[in-house]
């Protein structure tokens, strides 16, 4: 594990993994980083600026994960989430990913486009940074891009190669396409291929299943 810090008042806590595949670089002051215990083939955390917060829980694994935070951004990933290959770019806003999510490869999550777009009459920026909120038990399909102003409800699925921006995806729904649109409601997913979600062979936890069914009952 390699940690490079330039600044003051920074707090870095790493429960694991402690391997050469982990690099943490902090340039700035009063930033907070906490990393839970999980296996990884490559974890890169870069903070550039002051007052950023990054919290990675006890993930299932992160084969390849890159996190960049700037301008006071906040990034959090909940316990039991799995990451095949994901890049998170958080600038001046927040990325929150819940528990038991599944991020395929390569997934790109951004609060900002990286470059400004401006109205030529007023000079105002038209692509301001915005938050990305991903609930619990959400599956983000391969080669998907999730951008600013997006909220994805618990239990939902984002199809492969989708582009999601300034959109709310209701709980237990499927959204896909570029730009993404809602394709189906009242569905969720499981890491297994069980014949029925309620079979003993299904991998979904009882807590998550209760959360999804209770939420659906309240909405309906």
From TrEMBL:
GO terms for molecular function: acyltransferase activity. The keyword Glycosyltransferase does not apply. Pfam families: Hexapep. The keyword Transferase applies. Keywords: Acyltransferase, Transferase. This is Acyltransferase. It comes from Mycoplana ramosa (Mycoplana bullata).
């Amino acid at each position: 594990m390699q940690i490079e810090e330039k600044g003051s008042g920074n707090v870095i806590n790493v429960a694991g993994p402690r391997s050469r595949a982990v690099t943490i670089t902090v340039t700035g002051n009063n930033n907070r980083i906490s990393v839970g215990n999980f296996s990884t083939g490559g974890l890169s955390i870069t903070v550039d600026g002051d007052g950023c917060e990054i919290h990675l829980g006890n993930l299932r694994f992160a084969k390849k994960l890159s996190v960049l935070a700037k301008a006071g951004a906040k990034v959090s990933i909940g316990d039991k989430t799995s990451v095949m290959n994901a890049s998170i770019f958080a600038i001046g806003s927040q990325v929150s990913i819940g528990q038991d999510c599944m991020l395929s490869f390569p997934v790109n999550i951004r609060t900002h486009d990286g470059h400004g777009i401006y109205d030529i009459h007023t000079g105002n920026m038209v692509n301001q940074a915005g938050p990305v909120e991903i609930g619990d038990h959400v599956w983000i399909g391969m080669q998907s891009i999730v951008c600013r102003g997006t909220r994805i409800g618990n239990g939902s699925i984002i199809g492969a190669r989708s582009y999601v921006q300034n959109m709310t995806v209701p709980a237990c729904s499927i959204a896909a396409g570029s730009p993404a649109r809602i394709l189906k409601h009242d569905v969720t997913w499981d890491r297994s291929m069980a014949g029925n979600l309620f079979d003993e062979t299904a991998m979904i936890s009882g807590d998550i299943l209760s959360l999804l069914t209770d939420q659906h009952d309240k909405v309906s």
